[in-house]
């Protein structure tokens, strides 16, 4: 599923620019090609033009929440796994994400190793 040399192509959607910047740099060191999107609307525009192996989506964003974005993504690219991130400890919302087709969810802040394990699990599926 991933492209040349096993690089994983990931769409990272979160409206916290600092988080996206740090996470992108850390993931790139682990052979993940990260395309950041700072809003759900931007993520949808990017998805129209590019293919990804996995998406990591924040649950709580300003323009649209992660569940709304997940629903759109699942219509556009049903086979792409989506991992939800929630920084609000909202287990209920995360479970709702699973009901809408999310691959899994992690609580923010999440350990990079946990995220990498989840990404490899999703892509290897």
TrEMBL record:
Positions of post-translational 4-aspartylphosphate modification: 58
Regions that span the bilayer: none
Protein name: Response regulator receiver domain-containing protein
A biological process from GO: phosphorelay signal transduction system
Record bears the keyword Phosphoprotein: yes
InterPro entries reported in the protein's UniProt record: Bact_response_regulator, CheY-like_superfamily, Sig_transdc_resp-reg_receiver
Source species: Paucidesulfovibrio gracilis DSM 16080
The keyword Phosphoprotein is assigned to this record: yes
Response regulatory domain mapped to chain residues: 9-123
UniProt keyword terms in alphabetical order: Phosphoprotein, Two-component regulatory system
């Amino acid at each position: 599923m991933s492209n040349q040399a096993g690089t994983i192509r990931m769409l990272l959607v979160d409206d916290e620019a600092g988080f996206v910047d740090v996470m992108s740099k850390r993931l790139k060191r682990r052979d993940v090609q990260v395309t950041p999107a700072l809003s759900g609307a931007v993520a949808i525009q990017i998805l129209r033009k590019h293919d990804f192996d996995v998406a990591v989506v924040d649950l709580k964003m300003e323009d649209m929440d992660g569940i709304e974005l997940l629903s759109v993504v699942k219509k556009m690219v049903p086979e792409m796994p989506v991992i939800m991130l929630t920084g609000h400890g909202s287990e209920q919302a995360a479970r709702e994400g699973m009901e809408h087709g999310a691959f899994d969810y992690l609580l923010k802040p999440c350990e990079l190793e946990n995220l990498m394990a989840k990404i490899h699990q999703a892509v290897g599926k």
